[in-house]
Write a structure and sequence with these properties.
Order of helices and strands: HEEEEHEHEHEHEEEHHHEH
Number of strands: 11
Number of domains: 1
């Protein structure tokens, strides 16, 4: 069995969540948390992968039909499980990680470039979250219909609508990770430095012009009332 096949876990379909933007919800061995991979078709018609997930071959053929993979973003040290398999498969792609995660990511893949400097030619706007420890960056992407998408990782969860099931889901809920768009209890302990600064940062994200999609690594993407959802999340953070 190949490295790729060993990495494939149950996952859903490649779902279009915006104009030239797709998301897949997958799973991870020994973890009840769902995890999301985002696929963005860049202005150059190549693909940027955010938080890579190994898919079955039928789904990978569908992904490859959207365009050539040019960039793979490993958004933080916690989201590198499938990075090596992707580098083996897409050896010509540029692999990027935030500077704060580069050392850890470089333990599993080679030639990692700094995310802070690697996407300027694709019209990507990077947001550094105020009030959090240096852990992840957030990507603001231009979509093909003129709207914008915001891609986050672990800074916000959105597991209220479709929480994990079974005993694992019970544990996730017990740990305070299930609920509407918000930073989790674990996130508050591990990442949060100043809740008011972070709340203000999330509220400011709601001012992004023509924001139509918000994707987070764990939980449902938001495609309706994105501005209102971010404002509501900022108030939850502030409590």
């Amino acid at each position: 069995m190949s490295r790729w096949d060993k990495q494939v876990c149950p996952h859903g379909p490649l779902e279009e969540i915006g104009a030239g933007l797709w998301q897949v919800t997958g799973s991870l061995k020994r973890s009840p948390l769902p995890r999301n991979m985002v696929v963005w078709r860049t202005p150059k018609k190549s693909l940027l992968i955010h938080s890579a997930i190994c898919l079955d071959e039928v789904s990978m053929k569908e992904l490859d039909s959207l365009g050539p993979v040019s960039h793979v973003v490993v958004p933080c040290e916690m989201h590198r499980a499938d990075a090596k398999a992707f580098q083996d498969r897409y050896s010509e792609a540029t692999f990027l990680a935030p500077a704060c995660a580069r050392e850890k990511v470089s333990q599993v893949i080679s030639g990692v470039e700094d995310l802070e400097e690697g996407l300027e030619d694709l019209n990507v706007t990077l947001h550094r979250p105020a009030g959090l420890k240096d852990f992840e960056l957030h990507l603001e992407l231009p979509l093909e219909d003129g709207s914008r998408a915001l891609v986050m990782t672990d800074a916000l969860f959105n597991l209220a609508g479709d929480p994990p099931k079974g005993f694992g889901g019970f544990l996730v809920k017990l740990l305070g990770s299930v609920g509407p768009l918000n930073i989790t209890k674990i996130g508050r302990r591990m990442l949060l430095e100043n809740k008011n600064d972070y709340a203000n940062y999330v509220r400011d994200l709601s001012k992004i012009s023509n924001l139509s999609v918000l994707s987070v690594a764990h939980g449902q993407c938001i495609r309706e009332d994105v501005v209102a959802e971010l404002i509501a999340a900022s108030e939850r953070i502030r409590k």
